Amino acid sequence: MANRARVNIVVPGDDPVQIQGSPELDRLASYGRVRVYTDRPSTLEEQVDRARDAEVIINSRSIVKWPEEALRALPKLRMMTVCGIGTDAIAVEVASELGVAISNQPGRTSGVVAEHIFGLLFAVAKRAAFQTAELRAGRWTRMDNVLLQGKTLGVIGTGNVGSEVARLANAVGMNVVAWTFHPSPERASRLGVRFVELDELLRTSDVVSLSVTLTSDTEGMIGERELGLMKPGALLVNGGRGQLVDTDAMVRALDSGRLAGAALDVFDVEPLPPDHPILACEQVVLTPHQADQTPEGMELLNSGAVDNIIAFLEGRPQNVVNP
Questions:
Q1: Is the pLDDT of residue 175 over 70?
Q2: Which position among 61, 108, 127, 289 bears the catalytic label?
Q3: Is 289 a catalytic residue?
Q4: How far from 181 is each of 190, 213, 294, CA to CA, in Å?
Q5: Could you confirm whether 270 is annotated as catalytic?
Q6: Which residues contact 321 (CB under 8 A, 6 or more apart)?
Q7: Are 92 and 143 in the same domain?
Q8: pLDDT at residue 2 above 70?
Q9: In which domain, by residue range, is 95 found?
């Protein structure tokens, strides 16, 4: 322990608050110096300057992006961990070229995230946001809710989160179909789902829920054509990434009434600008990319990030997405 080389560990922009003040950071004291920037860098130049001497970065917020030019400006960097699952804020291929290990936390908060997604689903099905706005405006508006029991939920992506969403749907009496890149009878039996082709899922589902990872293969996978295949009056839930869906096409489907509602925790632009078209849609329930933001979920992610760093510094890297 005494002979271990001490490293510079930097959190370049912890806004909104994720890891600042967490007791988990105390576990890194014997490994190096930890510097936490509690505000968001205003420019990429400022962001790089904050991390210039970092050997390890905790990218606690995906709002802080690491494109190629930023990574190439950090010659001392050896490892970066995220406080979550997605690594789409990082130019991972460039990191691989530079020998920088990128670690994430697959499945660590899948139960927390799935519960939030299901909460969004219930809120949009029961018109909670719409009716709250109506009541605040002094209107007592008659509109049918959507009964979920006995309806079909189509889960796109059956990783840790999608699998838990499927379990919750089965528990409330929904029929579950699913799509994944790697279906198998064993997985279908274990998850209580029936794997189908994507077009069939879209045509037959009363609710479509997205939990698939954002990649070049999945970006924009739900566009004008796919929304047109969905049942009139279906609901769309996105807890994956905003770029999975063509936002303009979704807005048109909502405005026309073809989509009866959308429940979104993720957006194509984050933070959501005040003139974003989705804000003008009536039948939407929106949360600011916070599906895992419970005290329990945040500390699970904080401890996971610290675990990743300690494992790397002790020569046993874990959860590395670019081995």
A1: yes
A2: 289
A3: yes
A4: 17, 11, 30
A5: yes
A6: 87, 92, 102, 103, 104
A7: no
A8: no
A9: 7-108+294-313
